Amino acid sequence: MAIKLYEHFTYKKLFRFTIPSIIMMIFTSIYGVVDGLFVSNIVGDTPFAALNFIMPYLMILGAPGFMLGTGGCALISKTLGEGDKEKANKIFSMVIYVGIALGIALGVIGIFTMRPVASLMGATGQMLDDCTLYGTIISLSLPAYMLQLSFQSIFICAERPTLGLYMSILTGVSNMVLDALFMAGFGWGLAGAAMATATSQFIGGIIPVIYFSRKNTSLLRLGHASHDMRSLAKICTNGSSELMSNISMSLVGMLYNIQLMAYAGENGVSAYGVMMYVNFVFISIFIGYSVGIAPVVGYHFGAQSHDELKSLRKKSTVVIMSFSVCMLALGLLLAPLCSKIFVGYNPELYALTLHGFRIFCFSFIFAGMAIFGSSFFTALNDGLTSAIISFLRTLVFQILAVLLLPLVWGIDGIWLSIVVAELMAFAVTVFFLALKRKKYQY
Description:
Order of helices and strands: HHHHHHHHHHHHHHHH
Shape: globular
Helix content: over 70%
Distance between the termini: 28 Å
Number of helices: 16
Largest sheet: none
């Protein structure tokens, strides 16, 4: 039996409701990892470095999809909690139509700016050509990718998290199969990796549009859109933290690549890429839980169920910290295996990656709380607090750390900077949760 947003959530119901979104986010991150795994082992070092080098810019272009999805979900859930289903559907439709239009515009921008941006970041020669090739192909699928990111949140507030999970599995498996076919089978190299990813993004973006356009059993249906610019502004404000988080992480990723090129060359960029792939998978657990619980928080906020808000906040803190400890232990245990899978063919690169990985793993103990805190305030329609947490975590603390710590500890300072930034973000999140408790009565 499906769990409804209005129910009281025990730990068992929390896990049943959020597990689909957690697995969904894991699959979404895994099929990105598969691209890197195939490229590294089949195509070689330089294309692998190029993929990692241009990926932050591609994530910036796609980031508005997170904003529309999370911000829209917060307002839709609140509207459903207030009992106005018709308005919720109009808001949902507006989110989708705006996402399509914005995706087309940003895709065109991506095509024309890919090579200049890669060159500006420091790519030259074959690496520059590879960055341009991969990025241009991915830009063609950007409208579908933005829809895919938006639907990750919308499936949950439509009370269909399991359907969202199935979509993620479908897109993930299709990308893996096409990676193997295009690269290992047809020998299309880096272009094959990009085409596999682009095709899977079309699957993940278009099928949900078809589902919600037809009569269905969810809370939402795609139809006439709201033309309420105040609602759109509220959506963008609510989702600004997720937008800021993704843009900031991408900008910081660019800065890390620039620093790594200076301190360790292409090997440094490749080692950082391995860590980021594993980080995507681990962090996706925190993101999946936070995305999964957000509609529940938004619904009870709209219904003014303060006891349930308090229960959700307490239980979520226990869950997040338990995940954090487990992921630190798992990261340290799997560091040799993960490094070997990606770069085991190069002993020097393997040693660099393994050493950095063992330092980097300690960031997992702090990252989850800041991710949850930002999502929690988004669900409470407090976009400003959410944005502050994300801005400090993903931009300010990271930039300060990656610029200053390498001056003292060299390449180790770059790996350590991630840990220090997450620790500072953890402290800021705890401060805001305590500061806002009386206002929202959680």
